[in-house]
Amino acid sequence: DEGGGGAEANRELMEAVNRTGKAYTTHTVVGGGYVLRFAVGASLTEERHVDGAWSLVQEKAKELMSGAGLDRR
């Protein structure tokens, strides 16, 4: 939910990704859930750019989960 732990975790993930300067995410609330958004609008964007951004999101999520004792390897 918007005020729950999932919302805070997603907010932290969004901020961690954005701090890198390599990709930019925003958020919205859908059905009460805090959801991250990644828009691809540039005509020169290639699949490798999207793949790189997704890898970055995964990397930052793992770092945050590990720091919170939630590492699920």
UniProtKB/TrEMBL annotation:
One GO CC annotation, please?
cytoplasm
Keywords carried by this UniProt record: Decarboxylase, Lyase
Q: What residue ranges are annotated as transmembrane? A: none
One Gene Ontology MF term: carboxy-lyase activity
* Entry superkingdom: Eukaryota
- Name this protein carries in UniProt: Aspartate aminotransferase family protein
Q: Which organism is it from?
A: Nymphaea colorata
User: Which taxonomic lineage is given here?
Assistant: Eukaryota, Viridiplantae, Streptophyta, Embryophyta, Tracheophyta
